[in-house]
């Protein structure tokens, strides 16, 4: 039987032997072997050259120690330098500097691409875990509508703004029972965001802050102060004997007006922001010496569950006598801390405040929110616990009884 090859093969020719070179190619082992050879070559290259980047481009940066450089700043220049609100970094000695200064003083040299500067500093303020949280304001129980806005009031359950919005009294365990108490309140807040920020950054939360009714973004500023643990007062502008200060702003309380008009202006002032424990005078030498003028203000303050604080800037004020008759919680500054606005005078006033607290059991100091006043008060406040004295908010020493008075100045 013949096959197709036999039939198609030319006659007389034998079949050609199969070539021994024609075999199937094993592609998979061949590819695997190639990959192994490439890997071996790369390993050999790294071992021989020490280049772990396998030929990829790279750059080297040297870090060299550098001696810190500091420049002395004359004290006069520092004192006259205007306050700046842009972020700054604070060095070990408390001096403000930019990021480049911090890098130089650290002893480390940082190499950057040509033309690149040190980045702007970013300051992150970590909240103090011990910060006392005040109750939110406004409390719906403690407000009522008026034609000017929400007025404070005593709640149906008897809750009083003076108590609900007050900062709790926390006595350090290192202090003995019955330790002398000092309360300090600082006014003029709300008129400058920078001033308020400096006060909340530097002053301990036990210092009470008094806000004028004319600030920009006032509710937000008050909320930030309360979030930092400061209880707040509302400053009431009142007329004075000085012609230049007779009308400090809209709805100033004027002694020449009828009692109904005075209360109407008072309502406008009371609606500027919520969350205050009481009110205090702003100026008011004439107003606080006139019983017909001040009496309706103090009655309205009592009926709305607030306390009244006299800043003691006027020796003619009769507010304390009227408040005592009306059973109104009252406090009066014992010492005006910055009547003379020098560091030496403020320190001397703080020393008098400490002496009054040791003598009477408690004492109240009043100051304006100037940078120097804030700085000296903050320094003094840090020393009180070591002296065995408690720093408390103004609401903690307000009383319905008259207290012994000392020379306010």
N-to-C SSE series? Answer: HHHEEHEEHEHEHEHEHEHEEHEHE
What is the strand content?
5-15%
Gyration radius, rounded: 39 Å
Major sheet, described briefly? Answer: 9 strands, parallel
Distance between the termini: 140 Å
CATH homologous superfamily annotation of the domain at 162-396 = Glycoside hydrolase/deacetylase
Question: Overview of this structure, please?
Answer:
It is a single chain. With 409 residues, the chain is an alpha/beta fold. The protein has a domain at 162-396: TIM Barrel (Alpha-Beta Barrel). Helix content is 32%, strand content 14%. The protein contains 12 helices and 13 strands. The strands form 3 sheets. Strands 5, 6, 7, 8, 9, 10, 11, 12 and 13 form a 9-stranded parallel sheet that branches. A two-stranded antiparallel ribbon has the order 1-2. The longest helix is centred in the N-terminal third of the chain and has 23 residues, at 27-49. It is elongated and about 115 Å long.
How would you sum up this structure in a few lines?
The protein is an alpha/beta fold and 409 residues long. It is built from 12 helices and 13 strands.
Secondary structure layout plus pairing:
Elements lengths: L3 H5 L18 H23 L25 H6 L8 E2 L5 E2 L1 H8 L36 E4 L2 E4 L8 H4 L16 E9 L3 H10 L5 E4 L6 H10 L4 E7 L20 H12 L7 E6 L7 H13 L3 E4 L8 H7 L4 E3 L2 E2 L6 H18 L1 E7 L2 H13 L6 E3 L17
Parallel strand pairs: 5-6, 5-12, 5-13, 6-7, 7-8, 8-9, 9-10, 11-12
Antiparallel strand pairs: 1-2, 3-4
Helix pairs in contact: 6-12, 8-9, 11-12
């Amino acid at each position: 039987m013949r096959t197709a090859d036999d039939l198609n093969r030319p006659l007389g020719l034998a079949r050609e032997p199969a070539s021994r070179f024609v075999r199937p190619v094993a592609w998979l082992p061949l590819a695997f072997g190639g990959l192994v050879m490439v890997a071996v070559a790369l390993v050999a290259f790294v071992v021989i050259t020490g280049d772990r980047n396998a030929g990829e481009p790279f750059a080297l940066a040297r870090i060299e120690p550098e001696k810190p450089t500091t420049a002395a700043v004359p004290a006069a220049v520092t004192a006259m330098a205007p306050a700046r609100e842009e972020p700054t970094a604070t060095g070990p000695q408390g001096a403000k500097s930019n990021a480049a200064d911090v890098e130089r003083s650290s002893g480390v040299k940082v190499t950057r691409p040509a033309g690149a500067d040190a980045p702007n500093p970013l300051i992150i303020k970590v909240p103090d875990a011990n910060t006392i949280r005040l109750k939110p304001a406004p409390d719906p129980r403690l407000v009522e509508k008026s034609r000017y806005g929400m007025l404070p009031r005593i709640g149906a359950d008897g809750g009083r703004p003076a108590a609900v919005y007050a900062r709790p009294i926390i006595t350090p365990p290192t202090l003995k029972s019955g330790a002398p108490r000092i309360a300090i309140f600082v006014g003029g807040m709300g008129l400058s965001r920078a001033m308020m920020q400096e006060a909340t950054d530097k002053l301990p939360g036990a210092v009470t802050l008094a806000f004028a009714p004319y600030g920009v973004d006032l509710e937000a500023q008050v909320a930030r102060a309360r979030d930092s643990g400061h209880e707040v007062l509302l400053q009431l502008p009142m007329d004075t004997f000085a012609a230049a200060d007779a009308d400090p702003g809209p709805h100033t309380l004027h002694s020449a007006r009828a009692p109904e008009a005075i209360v109407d202006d008072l309502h406008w002032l009371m609606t500027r922001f919520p969350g205050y424990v009481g009110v205090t005078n702003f100026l008011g030498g004439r107003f606080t010496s006139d019983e017909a003028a001040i009496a309706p203000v103090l009655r309205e303050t009592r009926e709305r569950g607030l306390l009244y604080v006299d800043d003691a800037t006027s020796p003619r004020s009769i507010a304390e006598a009227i408040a005592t008759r009306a059973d109104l919680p009252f406090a009066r500054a014992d010492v005006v801390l910055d009547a003379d606005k020098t560091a030496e005078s403020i320190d001397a006033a703080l020393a008098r405040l400490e002496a009054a607290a040791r003598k009477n059991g408690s004492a109240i100091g009043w100051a304006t929110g100037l940078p120097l006043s804030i700085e000296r008060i903050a320094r003094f406040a840090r020393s009180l616990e070591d002296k065995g004295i408690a720093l408390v908010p103004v609401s903690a020493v307000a009383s319905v009884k008259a207290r012994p008075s000392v020379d306010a100045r």
